[in-house]
Design a protein that fits this description.
heterodimer; A: 454 residues; alpha+beta; Dna Ligase, domain 1; 2 domains; 10-stranded mixed β-sheet; 31% helix; B: 219 residues; mainly alpha; globular
């Protein structure tokens, strides 16, 4: 089902019908020329490829986006308070809102960071929240929170520039919210928590799937793009080593790698992409790390279940945006429901991301379901189950025809003193009709997202 | 504020300048050789590549283009361009976006062409035109950044290197050397270098350049 019942969408189609569709190829040419890539590893081979792009934007009316804005800001405030509490006072456990063992079994929970409060008590600096719009309730529903290293913002940013050049008519005739401010919002967040020194973006290197994004964002926000070997830590202070041997202090690091690889002296000693000693500098309050190490616990799919409770607990507010109906096999009552209804549920492995570890009950054989039940019984904390949400399709212009494709929406929320929701986002669509997996790492494409006033 | 660059990025910018200049200089040598071998001196292509310590064989001018550009030797422009592309990707955050885009376009063009049976002369024109575009894009702004100096340094060093290998007029190399010295002074104002003069051998001049480069980037 396609969601196109608003007046701004009609105006878009009127303009679209008058455009030269032959010019659509120019988007691909642009992405090829500037290597706007999302790289993949397939069968052990590194493949440089651009992310498939669809010219038809997702359109969200301003008033609808305002609700998203409020809901997402509320959610990030609560998640930030949760993380700060969890790593310091642990009141949420003491008050039995979340079972203690449930937290401690979360893979992303880093007990080594207990008692540590980061600069300005901000932990959730850059967040990507995945949502879909439910066809039954017509509401936006949150599918997951990405509070570690959410990627993707650079793609709509890059393509918007191109869109304006190829089809300026849309931007002349429609009231589309500008989006160029995203790098400056990031910059504000880095400056806000900066402990004294320059800002850097730490990339695992040019073979990382999102290397394009790392370079793009560093350039746009005026930060230095660095690889691990280009930083040195001396006396618990991080330095950028300039080509002339001069060491320049680093005050904030936007790290684009998972915690376990960040510092071989602190986490995984086999990491070849980390900066030895950076955690010691962080723990001493000499450098800010964005996002804060230890955030993985909050975007654990099992902890997601508790976010509405966190909103009530920390903010004393009702959640503005809902979670997808979720069950935790960890709780006996939920487990019974999951086992009785597995054919209609989506089962997710809490430790996986990027569309991996997602099983659709309706696609599984009886034998597979029985096997899965056995695995769940052995390790119930490892899984969650969700009702399959029938979310709206978006129209896509693929192979010269307009076709429906499932599409989700990743909203970006950047936190400094207060959270700011970027008035755009990454709309990802599945390449095949009826496929619910839209992740870029699963071959999905992206669209621009236009927040528009009537 | 002065543009910051890590040693790794500076080195990649420098080598980017060198590889791109190497492709351009080689093609600028290939063009007159191609013309000459048509009806004046069939072996002039062999002589040219022999000076680069590369042995090549061809039966006519058209085959010369294929062999010169894409045969398995150290001056294969596809390999050189892959190196330049790799350097550019590593330092893309410190490069002008338009120049970077043209580098990728050039790299894709060469990659496509290498699989074609017969290289046409117009292909060389197209490559040279794109390289000129890149140099132009890198010098468009009034004020030069540190990154621009590293690329230009690579370009000039490569120019002298090839010039000396081909045993061309030393005077030209010394003029370029003066320009290299000016850039070195900007990038490493405190470094002390031995002056060169016209009596120095090619080898001494090349060694003197390398000594300068090694003092600029401090790892």
């Amino acid at each position: 089902m396609i969601n196109d019942k608003n007046s701004v969408t009609n105006t878009f189609w009127e303009i679209f019908s008058k455009q030269d569709v032959n010019k659509i190829d120019e988007f691909q040419k642009y992405m090829d020329k500037f290597a706007v890539n999302f790289n993949l590893y397939k069968d052990g081979n590194f493949i440089e490829r651009s992310l498939p792009f669809d010219v038809i934007p997702r359109i969200i009316e301003s008033k609808e986006f305002d609700k998203l804005d409020r809901g997402l800001s509320q959610r990030i405030r609560a998640l930030n308070l949760f993380l700060e509490d969890l790593y310091t006072s642990k009141n949420i456990i003491k008050d039995n809102i979340i079972p203690e063992e449930f937290i401690y079994q979360a893979k992303g929970y880093l007990k080594e960071l207990n008692g540590i409060s980061p600069s300005k008590k901000i932990r959730t600096h850059i967040n990507g929240i995945d949502l879909v719009k439910d066809t039954v309730t017509n509401d936006w529903v949150i599918l997951e929170d990405n509070l570690r290293v959410p990627s993707g913002a650079s793609y709509p940013l890059s393509i918007r520039d191109t869109y304006r050049k190829i089809y300026p008519e849309f931007f002349e005739s429609l009231k589309i919210k500008p989006i160029k401010e995203y790098p400056s919002i990031l910059r504000e967040s880095m400056d806000y928590v900066n402990c004294g020194g320059i800002n850097v973006v730490l990339t695992p290197g040019r073979f990382n799937s999102a290397y394009y994004e790392h370079a793009y964002l560093a350039k746009k926000m005026g930060a230095q793009l660095v690889r691990n070997s280009e930083l040195v830590v001396k006396n618990k202070i991080v330095y950028f080593r300039n080509y002339n041997g001069k060491d320049i202090r680093v005050g904030a690091v936007y790290k684009r790698m998972d915690d376990e690889f960040l510092d071989p002296k602190f986490f995984n000693s086999d990491s070849l992409i980390g900066v030895p000693g950076i955690m010691e500098a962080y723990l001493s309050g000499n450098v800010a790390l964005l996002n804060a190490p230890g955030n993985g616990v909050a975007d654990d799919k099992g902890i997601y279940y508790f976010v509405p409770k966190m909103i009530k607990y920390y903010l004393n507010e009702e959640p503005i945006l809902k979670n997808a109906p979720t069950y935790l096999p960890y709780f006996e009552e939920d487990r019974k429901y999951v086992f009785d209804n597995m054919e209609k549920l989506v089962i997710k492995d809490v430790a996986e991301a990027g569309g991996y570890g997602v099983l659709f009950g309706h696609e599984m054989t009886k034998l597979q379901i029985e096997d899965l039940k056995t695995i769940i019984k052995t390790d119930p904390r490892r899984f969650i189950a969700q009702e399959l949400i029938e979310f709206y399709d978006e129209k896509c212009y693929l192979n010269n025809e307009i076709v429906p494709r499932k599409a989700d929406f990743r909203a970006y929320v950047v936190m400094a003193e207060e959270p700011k929701v970027w008035q755009c986002g990454l709309t990802r669509y599945a390449m095949e009709e009826g496929n619910y997996l839209v992740n870029s790492s699963q071959g999905g494409g992206f669209k621009d997202t236009w927040v528009m006033e009537e | 504020m002065e543009q910051l660059l890590t040693g790794n990025v500076a080195t990649n910018l420098y080598w980017f300048g060198r590889y791109l200049e190497r492709i351009e200089s080689l093609l600028l040598e290939v063009v007159p050789a191609f013309d000459k071998m048509i009806d004046i001196d069939k072996d002039c292509g062999k002589e040219l590549y022999a000076k680069l310590d590369i042995d090549i064989e061809y039966k006519d001018s058209k085959e010369f283009l294929n062999v010169a550009l894409f045969s398995d030797h150290s001056a294969n422009i596809h390999t050189l361009m892959e190196f330049a592309r790799e350097n550019a990707i590593i330092c893309r955050a410190d490069m002008y976006t338009s120049a970077f885009g043209t580098v990728i376009e050039l790299s894709d063009l060469i990659k496509k062409e290498k699989n074609i049976t017969q290289v046409e002369f117009r292909f060389i024109d197209k490559i040279l035109s794109l390289i000129s575009e890149i140099w132009g894009e890198l010098t468009r702004r009034q004020k030069r950044n540190t990154s621009d100096y590293f690329i230009r340094l690579g370009k000039l060093v490569e120019k002298v290197d090839l010039h000396l290998r081909l045993e061309r007029n030393k005077e030209f190399s010394l003029i370029v050397m003066d320009e290299i010295d000016k850039i070195v002074k900007i990038l490493a104002p405190d470094a002390i270098f031995t002056a060169h003069d016209e009596n120095d051998s090619y080898e001494v001049i090349l060694n003197s350049i390398n000594a300068k480069i090694n003092k600029i980037v401090i790892e």
